[in-house]
Amino acid sequence: DVKVTQSSRYLVKRTGEKVFLECVQDMDHENMFWYRQDPGLGLRLIYFSYDVKMKEKGDIPEGYSVSREKKERFSLILESASTNQTSMYLCASSLFNLYNEQFFGPGTRLTVL
Amino acid sequence: GIQVEQSPPDLILQEGANSTLRCNFSDSVNNLQWFHQNPWGQLINLFYIPSGTKQNGRLSATTVATERYSLLYISSSQTTDSGVYFCAVASRGATNKLIFGTGTLLAVQP
Fold it and tell me: What mean pLDDT value characterizes chain B?
């Protein structure tokens, strides 16, 4: 079974703090993704990566950056957290092929005070 | 971009009842997935089904790609089936980008 893990289930941070969300997958997948999920807005893609050190912006990259130094690990960074970044963050991974079946981690519920 | 619509938005069932959830999409797709989001927020993969029919226990799914819709069938529902069901698609021109529907909130009552 594919396993995608995220570093925290719940996180509380203060405005202005630098926040790191970590995601690790154990299936040697090339693609990794970060989404956020908000009531009424659904799931929206923040960034994705198709290889080590490669990244592409999704639909809502503003206020976020990412890092992929190793194939199995994809980090989402909030350089200066703001209250409007309070959300559920979901990481996913998939093989780099035509089909791109994505598998999701358990999610991190981030609250910025 | 591709549009994904799910219906119904909400559904309440008695335990043991059957249900059908629908997903309509506006363009040809390379990927169609059904997910169940449990009360803790995790998205559980149910089916990868860009076309055809699949079954897994009490759940089955059918995608008619030429008519641009997919159906998820839940039979003999249980309280543990409660949660939000999402359909997500990726178009042929953007296979990396999953577009999610707004979901169907299912509540199964004992």
Answer: 94
